[in-house]
Write the structure tokens for this entry.
Amino acid sequence: MPTKRWQSNRRVTNHTVGTGCPPYERHEKIMNNKNLYAAISAAFPADRSAIAIESADSSTGATLKPYSWRELDERTARIANLLASLDLPEGSRVAVQTEKSVEALMLYLGVLRAGYVYLPLNTAYQASEIEYFIGNAEPAVVVCSSKSLAWIQPIADAAKVTRVFTLDDAGGGTLVEAAAGHSATHTVVTKSGDDLAAILYTSGTTGRSKGAMLSHDNLLSNALTLKDYWGWSANDVLIHALPIFHVHGLFVASHCALLSSAKMIWFSKFDPNAVIARLPEATVFMGVPTLYVRLLSDARLNRDTCKNMRLFVAGSAPLLIETFNEWRDRTGHTILERYGMSETAMLTSNPYDAQHGERRGGTVGFPLPGVQVRVSGDKGESCPVGEIGGIEVKGPNVFSGYWRMPEKTKEEFTVDGWFKTGDVGKVDERGYVVIVGRSKDLIISGGYNVYPAEIEGYINDMPGVAESAVIGVPHPDFGEAGVAVVVGKAGSALDATAMLADLKSKIANFKVPKRVFIVDDLPRNAMGKVQKNLLRQQHAELFA
Ligand code: MCA
Ligand code: AMP
């Protein structure tokens, strides 16, 4: 149990909250090498034959294959040695679009170990999306699944990528074959805390996706803080059912377990049936709200299934109070909701330890140790407690900027160095942060971000389309779902079904609106701006 001094039931009178007490400061004193992997490997248990990760069947939950800490060490060493043998320039990016597997996690760890920069890509991305990321990030190495090789290879060739490897769901492929010829011992490459560890692409309200540059310090400081704050120990067993191309699954969940020598039960995909089958032996679960909604729809979820659990964490999207309450009634556990971003990893968390306060539904808790949060008005003025404004943050976890976009980076920081999250909220009188909305035009669907501007761009390019507006409306499963409202050019006959099929062939499936409405015109205000709020109201009950 954490016995730290942070977060009491104090009354907050100031708009800026957050304290400094990062476990990272203690860590810094003892580690010379700031490579995140050096900290991860230092946390491996003495008994290397113990099971680190158990891959499990994602439909039934049955164990497929156990991996020991020794295997984790040796296989990441082979991958790191393979990368080293390619003689890549310092700071080279390794772009990865593969299905989730334990080998894919090892690839991430191998890239860190070798001192290169990891660039994970959502498996749903299609050619035009991948072409942009590879063109923008200019990776030296691309790893994809064998089934994507035929279309990814030409994109990689055009971008002058040095090597393309394959990695398949079952762990085979040219990457593993090539790595097998390399030594199973490797000295972790020394990195400074500011060196880049990963680039995570996150879409923008205008223009193309931006690569958030995260350093070894950003990731490690956050991981050590979460491990401490959430009371992790070697006795924990984590059910890992999230994708590993985003912060939640790749960093938050994996880092906490790895830094605690805790075992992970590893699902390549989320299925309530499999998760419920393994819950009785687990202690920690992390999910986006959709995962909780789907688990609640299974009658087998009850206090008995959760008897061994100590922590359920939710985030990436707002958790409805109904879900929070129903979960407590059914399981006896109070979900801990936390808040973060690709640019910052985790920012705030409801308390783990009851002596630091209760977990309050509808809030995202307190700023994490070392993180500072403030709320600012339109003109940059500080908002008093309880007043709504833009959420701005500072801390060792906050990224250094967007890859090769200094202007965008400048826009997103205040002159005094605070990162503007684009989220709108308040800090209540007890210090809990409450998110009430977003200033950015963004839909969060099942934990994935969808930027309307990007989808509108694809729709507006279709023949016969005059203009369009993509909005998010409440959805019982995904929280929010995208809906497109489209105006045709005079004399055109638009077909909603054909438009959806066209979108499906071009962009990641989760970005495709669930419905398309063809209308005569879009509502506009006196300035001529489309009134998306009216469209949202009009379609609010669509999926009710
Ligand atoms: C799948 N579909 C979706 C989504 N997922 N549509 C909208 N939103 C989605 N999230 C599409 C499918 O392609 C399919 O389309 C149809 O919806 C039904 O899919 P289904 O089989 O139900 O989906 P699934 O494969 O079961 O996936 C649902 C999921 C998944 C498990 C909720 O979306 C998921 O893993 N989400 C987690 C995302 C995540 O990890 N986010 C963290 C980001 P069709 O029928 O046309 O084929 S990190 C972050 O946000 C920050 C830093 C933070 O705070 O954590
Ligand atoms: P991304 O950068 O894609 O990972 O998405 C980050 C965004 O997810 C944040 O800016 C928030 O809008 C949203 N988000 C993350 N966690 C929460 C949460 N617990 N409640 C509400 N929104 C959240």
Notes: The first strand starts at residue 51 and ends at 56.
